[in-house]
């Protein structure tokens, strides 16, 4: 069992889907402190979604298969934790909003109410919580519409809203911005950063690294089911192996690697701000072109 | 314009009476690779469905290679224009990869009734997307990103002159996005006219010569990508963002609009000289 601040602890987790030839997760060990936000990156098929399913209890409750190792939240075993307890702790926003929407509800409002009804929340509090999230995700005007008449972007916001309304302690988002336009993407990330200030522990699977690095404390790099790195973004993206995994890197990091520019601490910049600062410094330094045009 | 393979004249379109999601669009496309960008709900997908003939204009006309879409059938148009849907599930229905891809060629060249030809076309298309070693698999056993490539192959196999991709980068990792960019380049080299709807502004910057911004059912801006993406006001109005490198260049007071890392490095060196 971890110390007080450890929210999620994973030890030697290995998992294989039923009928699958290979394991999808192999000997994963990592721990996440309460209130931390973690980015999960890796190629399609690396095991990112599978890890989300384990932490939210979908594995082994919905997807069976063979699971070994230990996964705990607040020191309690996740695979055997009573479901009503687990769903108050962990909220999962699925990658495809079509899979998230219940399909049983005729309006956006009812869809958001669905989870709350199942938790037996008081009516007044329910209405208040629903109104708040619908406004937060710019869906209030759509509250009487059928979820399936929404656009992809609106549906994605609805999926996030219907999980957030449950006020989970841990929020897991599997590519929450894939269908969203750039402004919608920024809005989701801003919401995530608000949630962070509320002390919510956040895990987010995302390919938009330039955005991701602005909001997460650490990055977990998965490759073919294995955890290859669990560190700050600058550590993860500065390694030379990162390119061999085909996972990609922030365009700012790629640019600085190309120009041979490192920060004073020896790592490459990962974010917009760091890169601007570095290039601005270079501008005034009178360095010769050869020094960065490597 | 003589070269226009797609000509759109005073196009209006409404799903429900008098609620126009496309409003008075006049635009032409030649063979320049073109990105169509805009916020969710701006009318991009509706627009390409009209081009493909799946939706008929409420008002106005669309000509594809000289034929008015009102005077032909979707099947006839399929020989000239292919649309790869955003969601692969909207497009796939066969139980084997090879059958999925062969379905189009078998049907649009019914007159030829030549199964071998359809097979060859399909293998060629699957090679382009690197799925030619998965012929017997069930499409739903492929990953989402592979399924999207399979849908693209199904269109390529019909050999249309125009290929439209609706959000091809959604759900793709960076590696697959790069691969997609290479496939698009190959198709362009092969003489295809490529139109792509996307939200990925870095992908636009790197891969498309021309950019059209849709906003609330209208064309807000249209022109060479470098020019369109240097106008931040329009980009922001349309709920978009500048590509990351352009943003960086603006923050550093560049005079140019770098679309690629090469452009940026080049721009940075000349700009440094000017400073010095």
Task: Give a verbal description of the structure.
The complex is a heterodimer of chains A (294) and B (276). Chain A contains 13 helices and ten strands. Chain A is an alpha/beta fold and 294 residues long. Chain A folds into two domains: 6-99 and 169-247, P-loop containing nucleotide triphosphate hydrolases (Rossmann fold, 3-Layer(aba) Sandwich); 250-294, no CATH class. In chain A, the strands form two sheets. Chain A has a six-stranded mixed beta sheet with strand order 6-7-8-3-9-10, sandwiched between helices. A four-stranded antiparallel beta sheet of chain A has the order 2-1-4-5, covered by helices on one side. In chain A, strand 4 and strand 5 (76-77) form a beta hairpin. Chain A is globular, with a radius of gyration of 21 Å. Mean pLDDT of chain A is 89; it is low at 286-294. Chain B is of the alpha/beta class and 276 residues long. Chain B folds into three domains: 1-80 and 162-176 and 189-240, P-loop containing nucleotide triphosphate hydrolases (Rossmann fold, 3-Layer(aba) Sandwich); 91-159, no CATH class; 243-276, no CATH class. In chain B, 39% of the residues lie in helices and 22% in strands. Chain B has eleven helices and ten strands. Chain B has a six-stranded mixed beta sheet, sandwiched between helices. Chain B has a four-stranded antiparallel beta sheet with strand order 2-1-4-5, covered by helices on one side. In chain B, helix 3 (97-108) packs across helix 4, helix 3 (97-108) packs parallel to helix 5 and helix 4 packs across helix 5. The radius of gyration of chain B is 20 Å and the shape is globular. The N and C termini of chain B lie far apart (46 Å). At the A-B interface, helix 7, helix 8, helix 11 and helix 12 of A face helix 6, helix 10 and helix 11 of B.
Poorly predicted regions of chain A are 286-294
Distance between the termini of chain B: 46 Å
Helix share bin of chain A = 40-55%
- CATH architecture designation of the largest domain in chain A: 3-Layer(aba) Sandwich
For the secondary structure, the number of strands of chain A is 10
């Amino acid at each position: 069992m971890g110390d007080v601040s450890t929210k999620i602890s994973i030890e030697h987790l290995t998992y294989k889907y039923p009928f699958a030839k290979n394991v999808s997760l192999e000997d994963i060990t990592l721990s996440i402190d309460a209130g931390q936000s973690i980015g999960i990156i890796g190629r399609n098929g690396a095991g990112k979604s599978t890890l989300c399913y384990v932490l939210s209890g979908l594995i082994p409750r919905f997807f069976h298969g063979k699971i070994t190792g230990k996964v705990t939240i607040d020191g309690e075993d996740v695979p055997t934790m009573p479901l009503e307890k687990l769903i108050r702790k962990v909220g999962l926003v699925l990658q495809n909003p079509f899979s998230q929407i219940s399909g049983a509800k005729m309006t956006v409002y009812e869809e958001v109410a669905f989870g709350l009804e199942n938790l037996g929340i008081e009516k007044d509090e329910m209405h208040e919580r629903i109104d708040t999230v619908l406004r937060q995700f710019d869906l209030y005007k759509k509250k009487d519409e059928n979820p399936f008449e929404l656009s992809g972007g609106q549906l994605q916001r609805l999926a996030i809203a219907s999980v957030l309304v449950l006020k989970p302690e841990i929020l897991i988002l599997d590519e929450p911005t894939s269908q969203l336009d750039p402004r919608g993407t920024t809005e989701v990330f801003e919401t995530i950063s608000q949630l962070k200030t509320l002390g919510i522990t956040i895990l987010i699977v995302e390919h938009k690294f330039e955005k991701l690095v602005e909001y997460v404390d650490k990055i977990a790099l998965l490759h073919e089911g294995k955890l290859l790195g669990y560190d700050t973004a600058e550590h993860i993206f500065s390694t030379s192996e990162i390119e061999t995994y085909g996972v990609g890197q922030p365009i700012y990091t790629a640019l600085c690697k190309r120009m041979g520019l490192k920060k004073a601490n020896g790592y490459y910049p990962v974010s917009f701000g760091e890169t601007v600062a570095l290039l601005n410094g270079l501008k005034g330094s009178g360095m010769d072109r050869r020094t960065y045009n490597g | 314009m003589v070269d226009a393979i797609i000509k759109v004249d005073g196009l209006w379109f409404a799903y429900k009476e008098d609620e126009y999601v496309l409003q008075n669009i006049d635009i032409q496309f030649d063979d320049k690779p073109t990105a169509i960008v805009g916020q969710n709900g701006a009318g991009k997908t509706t627009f390409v469905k009209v081009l493909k003939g799946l939706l008929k204009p409420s008002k106005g006309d669309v000509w594809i290679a000289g034929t008015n879409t009102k005077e032909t059938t979707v099947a006839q148009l399929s020989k000239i224009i292919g649309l790869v849907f955003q969601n692969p599930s909207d497009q796939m229905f066969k139980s084997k990869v090879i059958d999925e891809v062969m379905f189009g060629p078998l049907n649009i060249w019914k007159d030829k009734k030549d199964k071998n030809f359809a097979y060859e076309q399909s293998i060629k298309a699957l090679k382009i997307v690197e799925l030619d070693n998965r012929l017997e698999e069930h499409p739903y056993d492929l990953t989402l990103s592979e399924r999207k490539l399979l849908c693209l192959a199904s269109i390529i196999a019909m050999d249309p002159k125009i290929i439209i991709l609706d959000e091809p980068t959604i759900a793709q990792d960076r590696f697959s996005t790069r691969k997609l960019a290479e496939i698009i380049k190959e198709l362009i080299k092969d003489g295809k006219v490529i139109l792509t709807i996307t939200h990925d502004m870095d992908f636009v910057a790197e891969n498309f010569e021309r950019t059209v911004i849709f906003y609330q059912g209208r064309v807000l801006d249209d022109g060479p990508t470098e020019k369109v993406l240097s106008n931040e006001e329009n980009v922001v109005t349309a709920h978009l963002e500048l590509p990351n490198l352009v943003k960086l260049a603006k923050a550093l007071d560049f005079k140019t609009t770098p679309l690629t890392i090469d452009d940026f490095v080049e721009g940075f060196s000349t700009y440094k000289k000017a400073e010095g």
